[in-house]
Amino acid sequence: MPASIFDLTGRIALVTGSSRGIGRTLAAGLADAGATVVLNGVNEERLESAREELGARFGSGRIHAVAFDVTNEQAAADGVGWVEEHVGPIGILVNNAGIQHRVPMLDLSLEDWERVISTDLTSAFLVGRETARHMLGRGNGKIINIGSVQTELARPTIAPYVAAKGGLRNLTRAMTAEWAAQGLQINGIAPGYIHTEMTQKLVDDGEFNSWILGRTPAGRWGAPEDLIGPAVWLASDGSNYVNGQTIFIDGGMTAVV
Ligand code: NAP
User: Fold this and answer.
1) Which residue lies with its CA nearest to atom 6 of ligand 1?
2) CB within 8 Å of 10: residues ≥ 6 apart
3) Which end of the chain is more exposed for a tag (fewer CB within 10 A), N or C?
4) Whose CA is nearest to atom 12 of ligand 1?
5) Which residues are catalytic?
6) What is the tens place of the pLDDT at every residue in 84-143?
7) Measured from the CB, is residue 43 less than 6 Å from ligand 1?
8) Which of 14, 15, 20 to mutate to test the pocket of ligand 1 (most atoms within 8 A of CB)?
């Protein structure tokens, strides 16, 4: 199979929540495969520092940044519109922005429930709908929704995250039901436990850390870099007949009891 099937040269990718963590690594991976990348986040300082770092690696012409809150309907529309006007047609959207909030469900406030649901689920609808409005007219586009092992499995104390990530799998299917016939491929990547800022506290917790090492057939935490290959594949022509799937990249955690 020729390597060019995974080549992203000339494609424009918007990666939400890419000022740090998994999003930043995915942005670098897509750029490494040839894409022009637009970074996103809320904190402008962090976003600018990511833009400078990746710009130095891949050339400033190929790394752009647009700050907007993915939970805000107008901001999401303006952000997507800015990319289309100032960078070019979005060929790849990675809905990655997300947050976690750990508290037993009996102590969970409605406000925190809604904050997690809107950041981890509604955002993919808002940014996805806006981007699809442009992609559908062109007859092609790739949308990758970033789920989690909580797309499939629950854990105590993270109810809204579990609900949002499970919902994201079915949103991926719903987008497929409506948009696949017009040339869009919408799929999900569900990472296992990946060592990032979001999970630093868990890595530092000796008991949780040994549970992860024992519960993961691969016997280690994932690294953000483990997600690059699947993301490049789902963003490329190599996945043109892959529709509505969520791929678990979890060291085997969801495959083995
Ligand atoms: P992270 O290091 O905490 O980074 C989160 C990113 O999302 C940051 O760039 C942040 O921007 C951005 N963000 C948060 N709220 C936003 C909003 N309202 N609008 C725009 N951007 C926003 O998280 P991560 O661990 O890389 O996780 C990234 C994704 O992977 C999430 O969807 C998460 O659920 C998923 N995931 C993570 C793991 C893991 O083990 N880490 C496992 C499975 C799935 P600012 O810098 O501006 O705050």
Assistant:
1) 17
2) 34, 36
3) C
4) 17
5) 161
6) 999 999 999 999 999 999 999 999 999 999 999 999 999 999 999 999 999 999 999 999
7) yes
8) 20
DSSP states of 1-57? --GGGG--TT-EEEETT-SSHHHHHHHHHHHHTT-EEEEEES-HHHHHHHHHHHHHH
Closest CA to 199 of 130, 234, 126, 150: 150
| Closest listed residue to residue 16, CA positions, set 4, 6, 24 | 24
Cβ atoms < 10 Å from Cβ of 84: 17
Q: What is the mean pLDDT of residues 62-86?
A: 98
| 221 C-beta closer than 6 A to ligand 1 | no
- Spatial neighbors of 114 by CB under 8 A, at least 6 apart, are none
Cα dihedral 48/50/51/54 (nearest 10): 160
Spatial distance between the Cα atoms of 43 and 38, rounded to a whole number of angstroms: 15
Q: Quick check: 119 and 146 in contact, CB under 8 A?
A: no
Domain boundaries, the chain: 3-196+223-252
**At 198, is the pLDDT very low, low, confident or very high (cuts 50, 70, 90)?**
confident
CATH class of 3-196+223-252: alpha beta
DSSP-derived pairing of the beta strands 12-15 and 184-191: unpaired
Q: pTM score > 0.85 for this model?
A: yes
